[in-house]
Amino acid sequence: VQLQASGGGLVQAGDSLRLSCAASGRTFSTYFMNWFRQAPGKERELIASIASGGYQYYGESVKGRFTASRDKATNTGFLQMNSLKPKDAATYYCALSSLFVRGAAKGTIYWGQGTLVTVSS
């Protein structure tokens, strides 16, 4: 399984950005699509997850501003990020996980490379 994240860039505070994560292989339809981010000097943070059946999870820091979605036809996950703030600046990662338990990606996990999001104030 390979994951290719894209869509990062430099935006201003208040702007929107849409990240994409294209997946290869047969696991996309049955795995959870997760989005993480990691800012310099901070731990990696799970911010969103979406199951194939529609279940969604959002971290408190992005709830109400970010929306995860997925397209089974193209094996692609998306993260729509609205009302971006400087504190949202980080490298964003997508990951497929076989399980999602109590707000954490578990089981077999496949990682994509990161895409950098920079938010200027």
Question: How would you explain this protein's 3D organization?
Answer:
This protein is mainly beta and 121 residues long. It has no helices and eleven strands. It has strands at 3-6, 9-12, 17-23, 32-38, 45-50, 56-58, 66-71, 76-81, 90-101, 104-111, 115-120. Strands 2, 4, 5, 6, 9, 10 and 11 form a seven-stranded mixed β-sheet that branches. Strands 1-3-8-7 form a four-stranded antiparallel β-sheet, with no helix packed on it. A hairpin with a 6-residue loop joins strand 4 (32-38) and strand 5 (45-50). The termini are far apart. The relative contact order is 0.32. The mean pLDDT is 96.
Topology:
Layout: E1 3-6, E2 9-12, E3 17-23, E4 32-38, E5 45-50, E6 56-58, E7 66-71, E8 76-81, E9 90-101, E10 104-111, E11 115-120
Parallel strand pairs: 2-11
Antiparallel strand pairs: 1-3, 3-8, 4-5, 4-9, 5-6, 7-8, 9-10, 9-11
